[in-house]
């Protein structure tokens, strides 16, 4: 079998090897780098999209949280307002009620006092009358004759007045 | 005992005879190169079929790793604008490694033939020159030879030509030395075992001395350096130099 030089230059082999390398470059480019790079690019795009989505979701959540907090704050304020209004109203009402009650009590008291005074005056008058007639009777009996009321009215009244002053 | 170290065997010749190129002889180098080409193409197709974006297979992970490695190697050393060089550098490296390691299967490495490395180096040289002309224009490229002083022009031309020659011979020398040393070692060990076992008297010795028992195992140690280490390192150096030279040509 024919053998080539150990260290030599064979033009055909040289040309063939140039062609082989160029074919290899094309094959690598077409069948390895193109599909894999495209796939990597796709995955990168997907990852980017996912990250963007996540960022958006986070922003949304933040906005929602802020809104919620604001709502909570408003609700709290409202509750406080209602509470203080209620307290104020209650205070006013109770004051009113107390005042009314006091007034009523005072009215009742004055009326009772008036009644008492009236009753007392009535009783005094009655007693005066009684005492007058009793004195007449006693005096009549003592003098021995009947005193006429009409005649001695003056006297009697003086007496009673004196008694009244003393009593 | 004959130990024969020769160039690639010519498997067949085609009846094409051109004036300068000579007769078209298809040698072992060419046929094994085709085999390398087929292996790498098959590997590419196997690695990249059924690519998915999510839930990738181990096979796809390897493909992605290799592609990313090549991308990072080229873009990291040359910059983003040289991304289109990735397939070229990857092909250079993969073909080199595959050509070197195919000797492990008992075939003759295409890289043990100077034509192979020379072909690669010439392509690299053309790319370097193209890049230089692109960077500084044809006039600027030619003017560069007269720097720093015009009298150095011949030496500058020489150093320019030395680039592809140096690159090709570095790779070729490493692989060929492996071939030579392995052949010598196999021959020497066969001879040693034949003499050693021939000491046994009678028919037993005569039969055993025909079996090169020492050839088993021992060459593997040297093969580790010459086939594996050189086989992986030299293509790396070749690719690295390619990348560096082209990147340098793009500067200034």
Give a verbal description of the structure.
- The complex is a heterodimer of chains A (about 170) and B (about 250).
- In chain A, about 90% of the residues lie in helices and about 0% in strands.
- With about 170 residues, chain A is mainly alpha-helical.
- Chain A has one domain.
- Chain A starts with 10 loop residues before the first helix and ends with a helix.
- The mean pLDDT of chain A is about 90.
- Chain B is mainly α and about 250 residues long.
- Chain B has one domain.
- Helices cover about 70% and strands about 5% of the residues of chain B.
- Chain B is built from 7 helices and 2 strands; from the N terminus they run ββααααααα.
- In chain B, strands 1-2 form a two-stranded antiparallel ribbon.
- In chain B, a hairpin with a 3-residue loop joins β1 and β2.
- In chain B, α1 packs across α2 and α1 crosses α3.
- Chain B is globular and about 80 Å long.
- The N and C termini of chain B lie far apart (about 60 Å).
- The model of chain B has no long low-confidence stretch (mean pLDDT about 85).
- At the A-B interface, α1 of A face β2, α1, α2, α3 and α4 of B.
